[in-house]
TrEMBL record:
It is an enzyme of class 3 (hydrolase). Single strand-specific metallo-endoribonuclease involved in late-stage 70S ribosome quality control and in maturation of the 3' terminus of the 16S rRNA. It comes from Brevibacillus fulvus. The keyword Membrane does not apply. GO terms for cellular component: cytoplasm. One of its GO terms (biological process) is rRNA processing. This is Endoribonuclease YbeY.
Length: 157
């Protein structure tokens, strides 16, 4: 089971929020993972600021993911006794989505805002699990998985 918290700095309607949750739950089931995810909906200015601060890219983007289970250079190690792990929820991470960017892309791609928000939620979620699209092979795998999740819900192009 996936626990999802949606924080709306940029407001969307309840139907889209529920659809995003359904997309994330479906992705979690297909990936056989459980845990907690926070999705924050922001404007272009805020995602631009985050993109510049954390990725060094000085422009807005559509979605950012911040994985909690990822270890990398310069990140502190957290030491927890094995038997204590059961007391901690599996914090998968944070997904940040630009609502204005999603609206623009939905129009540009000729599909609904519901599909775009679902796509961005699943895309961000798969990044939390370690998927990437840096190479053609990785992109094929990740985008194939995204389409599998969206097709299962009926959010096809």
């Amino acid at each position: 089971m996936l626990t999802i918290e949606i924080i709306q700095e940029e407001t969307i309607d309840d139907e889209i929020a529920a659809l995003m949750e359904k997309c994330l739950q479906t992705a979690a089931e297909l990936e056989e993972v459980s845990g907690e995810v926070v999705v924050t909906l922001v404007d272009d200015e805020r995602i631009h600021e985050l993109n510049r601060q954390y990725r060094g890219v000085d422009r807005p983007t559509d979605v950012l993911s911040f994985a909690m289970n990822e270890t990398g250079e310069g990140e502190p190690e957290i030491f927890v006794e094995e038997e204590e792990l059961a007391d901690f929820p599996n914090m998968l991470g944070d997904i940040i989505i630009s609502v204005p960017r999603a609206k623009e892309q939905a129009e540009e791609y000729g599909h609904s805002l519901q599909r775009e928000m679902g796509f961005l939620a699943v895309h961000g979620f798969l990044h939390l699990l370690g998927y990437d699209h840096g190479t053609a092979e990785e992109e094929k795998e990740m985008f194939g998985r995204q389409e599998e999740v969206l097709a299962k819900i009926g959010l096809t192009r």
